[in-house]
Structures are given as structure tokens and as C-alpha cells.
Amino acid sequence: MLKRKRGGDRDVLVFTSFFFDFSEIARNMKNNPQIKLAFLLLLLCCGAKLTAQNVGDALRYTALDYGGTARFVGSGSSMSSIGPDLGTLSINPAGIGLFRKSEYTLSPGLLNANINSTLLSGRGNTGSSDTRSNFNVQNFGLLFASNPLRQGAWKNINFAIAANNIANFNREFYYEGRSKGSLTQRFQELANNGEGNTGFETGLADEASAIYDFDPTDGIYEIDYELNDRARLFRAQAGTQRGSITELSFGFAGNYNEKVAVGISLGVPMLNFVQNKTYNERDDSTAQGGAIPYFKGLQYIESLNTSGSGINAKIGVILRPNQALRLSAAVHTPTAFTLTDDYSNTLQNDYYKDEREQGEFLGKTADRTGTFQYDFSTPWRFIAGAGIIAGKNGFLSGEIERVVYSRSRFNYADFPEAEEDVNGEIRDQLRAATNVRLGGELVLDAWRLRAGYAINPSAFNNDDSRRTTISLGGGYRGETFYVDLAYRRSSFTEQYYPYIVASKPIQEVRQEVDLSNVVFTLGVKF
Q1: Are 115 and 175 in contact (CB under 8 A)?
Q2: Cβ distance 456 to 437 under 8 Å?
Q3: For FRET with 356, which of 30, 104, 125, 387 sits at 20 to 30 Å CA-CA?
Q4: Residue-wise pLDDT tens digits, 117-164
Q5: Mean pLDDT over residues 380-393, rounded?
Q6: Structure confidence at residue 351 (pLDDT)
Q7: Calpha distance 20→250 (Å, rounded)
Q8: Residue 462 gets which letter from DSSP?
Q9: Given this model, what pLDDT does residue 359 score?
Q10: Are 252 and 94 in contact, with CB atoms under 8 Å apart?
């Protein structure tokens, strides 16, 4: 067995870099779409904060899930050609030009995320299910309808203010089990591939004595786990994330001679994202000295709070060739976000001074906190839709949305090389995708029944997976008020990696995700 002397104080590292070399991960994903998709989901859901920002952040803030009124949600968020509904202000502002009366709406919602996580690496690991629920406001809006030119061709000129929820980040997960491999292998790999102890993660690992260099002349870092790299460790991770994007929109639209509706809006999306993760490893072998000499366990805690706001503009049109058919188109400019990350990472490493794990027990802790400000711009969005109005019996609607996800961009004022690295990853890994939304409404006197269906393909190159969503709803329409209720559900399976290494055992977690949303709307006409 390789003999080492552990223990004693070590020099504290001065943190000098917030970025690290992404090349090993990129090479590992280049020709493997499954690893590529899993890495995306790692970043989107609960994955490690690998750089200041990354591809997962870009997708989190561009892969939108449009919310709004219960009528809008219940019909699959597909009403851009139908109107009038304040939910359409976030997709096609021309829809507000079709209102006949002024009204205001309030739409509280209950969101529920259930995630069943199973560590696939190793043998005999069982799944753990976690549920996170939260209340929020899916929509709040006020529309003023007017007819200033009563004898002219402009039948209505309307103004609206609405806040619509367009993305929700609330989730919670937990898994545990036993498998080969260690988080310290990741720290070692980064350190020995040119980063040394000057990187964000390797600096923490070096200060906590999770990696160490006994011979400073060779520049090679060692870890305890390589003394028995076939050992199966107990590992567990708990993660929570919360937050949303709510867009405050100011829209202006007109209805020209019942043939054309045109509209424009200014959007101010407000973003908040909070993520907390706690990862544990433990050598729980009952053998003398444990399975790994010196090593007892470690805990890695990561916290991130991202907040900020942006601005965008939308322009839209709805054509009415006849009473039954409606055609629509809308263009969204990129959203220019200004964001701030407040981060805090802590590594606790526990080990014995003696390899037989007798006598003095040592524990070292390292932490980093800080703030980073940056800009981010989303891609252009192009939307086309069509709807059929079945007299007074209801409608059928559909739309497609084209988004070139690879054109998302980060802007770092003082870090041009890091900026080019992350934007290069976005260009290399992401692609254009076409989202499809379908829906309809059946009118039964004063009552309404609704249903919808949506397909969102993966934004990753060479990946044919997709996310599907179904929605149902109903409501009652009176002369001066209306009430609506909607239910929306998405179910899918994704792979999650708590950390990535290029040549060591991969920790793979299967997550079965069930997202549901209930929205209630009260609307008053005046």
C-alpha cells in the first residue's frame, strides 16, 4: 500500500479565478448525445455551478413555459391567433386589440413538482421521491378598451398592462446509494489538467486537504481515494431550487375594420433563481481502517442566488380573411438581461492523521463567497399561428414557435476570454428548435370546456428527445364576470450527474419528473 503522511496545517490558498477549463467535459460530450442531454439536465435542474455561467443557465432563461390566465393555460397556451385574452400579451400583443370591453384579471396558481431520483451507478440502490409545491400569481392584468373613432375603420384601440408567469424553477430532489468513485476525483482531474490549485473548485479542495501535492516539483496532485479506487462509497445529495420569471408587459393594439389587429408591447421580465445543494460522501465500511485509508467523508454545499431584470419588445398581427379563419404572426426581440449572481460554496473534508484511522481525527473546511454581475441576451423568437372559430360553438387553435437557442449570449465586461468560452459552448452544443402548441375551447351556453397539447423538442444538437404537455380546463362566462380553472401537466424522465469526470466512474441518477400546475382566474368586465 502506498504510504502517506496526512495531517497538519496547510497554507491557505488565495482565491484567484472564478472560471475553469471546460475542455474535458466538452470532449466527453462531443460525440455522445446521451451524455450531452444529461449534462444539460444536470445544469438545468440541480447540477454543479461549473463556471460563472454555462449552457444550462442559458437554456434555463430561454426555454420558456408560458403561463397566464386559466383560459390561456387550459387551451395549451395556443391562443396567439384567437384573442382576446391577457395571457396572449406575452406571445402576440395583437390579441388585446380584439377586446370589446375593459376588464381586469387575477390568476393565482398552485405548482407541484414531484421528482423520483435513483442512483443507477452501483447495485441495489432504491429511489427516493420528493415533492415541492408553491403558490404564485400566474397572471394579473388590466385592459382598457376604447373606440375613439366611432365612425372610423379603427373599431377598437386598446391598452393593457399584465404580469404573466413565463418560467418556473421550483423543484426538490434527494437520492442516496453506494457506488464506486469520489467527488475528489473531479478535483484531482481539474488540478492535474493544468488548473493546479488556482481554480474555484480546486482551490476549495486544496484548502480543505481533499487534494494534496506531496512533491511540489512534479505538480501532480493526489487524493485518498486512489489508494483503493474500487471502493464503494455511500453518497447522497439533496437539492432545492426555486424562483421564476414573471414578465410585466405594456401593450397597445388596434382592430382595423374587423379584418386586421396589430399590436406592440414592451416587456420587462423579472428573474429570480435560488439553488441550494448538499452533497455527501462517506466511507462507512466496518473494516479496520475503512475501505479507504485516512478518508472518513466529505460534504460539499453549494448555494446560488441569481436575480435581475431585462427588457424586450414584441410586435404581432392577426388577420381575419373571413369569420371562421384567423392567421397570426409575432416577433419577439431578444431580451437584454442584467443579472447578479451571489454564490457561496463550502467544502468540509474529514480524515484521520493515521492511515489505520486510529488516533487523531482531522477535519478541514474551506469556503468561498462572492458576487458576479453580467449581461445575458436571449435569441429572437418567431411565432406563427392559425385558428378556426366555429361560430358560437368555440374554437381550435395552433401555433409554432421558432427559437435558435444557439444564439443566446453572455456578456462579461472584464472577462473576454471566459465570455468567448461560454458563448462558444452555447454555439457548439445548442441548435434551433420548433415548439408546437395546440388547443381548443367548446362553448356550452355560458359554460366552457378546454384542452391543449404542446411539444417542446430538445435544444441540444443530435438529440431527438422532447417534452410533451397536456392541459385541461373549464369555466363560466357571465355578463360582467367570469371564472376559469385549468390544469397542466408535464411528465418526463431525465438523467442527472452530480459531477462530471472524463475518465473515472460516472455517477448517474435517473430522475422521473412530474410537473403539474393548477390555475384559477377571476375576471371582471367593466
Answers
A1: no
A2: no
A3: 125
A4: 999 998 889 999 999 999 999 999 999 999 877 677 888 899 999 999
A5: 96
A6: 86
A7: 41
A8: T
A9: 62
A10: no
The full 3-state SS of 157-206, as one line of letters, equals: EEEEEEEEEEEECCEEEEEEEEEECCHHHHHHHHHHHHHCCCCHHHHHHH
pLDDT band per the 50, 70, 90 thresholds, residue 55: confident
First and final CA of the chain: distance in angstroms?
83
Whole-number Å distance between alpha carbons of 236 and 226: 21
CA gap 454, 76 in Å, rounded: 6
Contact 401, 380 (CB under 8 A): no
More confidently predicted of 83 and 172 = 172
The predicted-structure confidence for 228-250, as pLDDT tens digits, reads as follows: 999 999 999 999 999 999 999 99
d(CA 286, CA 267): 60
Whether the bond between 334 and the residue before it is cis, its omega within 30 degrees of 0, is no
| Cell 395546440, located at residue | 438
Closest Cα to residue 240, out of 486, 61, 65, 45?
Answer: 45
Asked if 86 contacts 160 with a C-beta cutoff of 8 angstroms, the reply is: yes
Instruction: Assess contact for 465 and 455: CB atoms under 8 A.
Output: no
Nearest in space to 494 (alpha carbons), one of 453, 452, 460: 460
Neighbours of 257 (CB within 10 A): 10
Nearest alpha-carbon partner for 515 in 29, 65, 139, 14: 65
Report how far residue 349's alpha carbon sits from residue 347's, in angstroms, rounded to the nearest whole number: 6
> What letters, b where the CB count within 10 A reaches 16 and e where it falls short, cover 430-466?
bbebebbbbbbbeeeeeebebbbbbebbbbbeebeee
Mean pLDDT of 447-475: 94
Backbone angles phi, psi at 502, to 5 degrees: -80, -35
Please list, in sequence order, all residues whose beta carbon lies within 8 angstroms of the beta carbon of residue 445, skipping any fewer than 6 positions away.
none
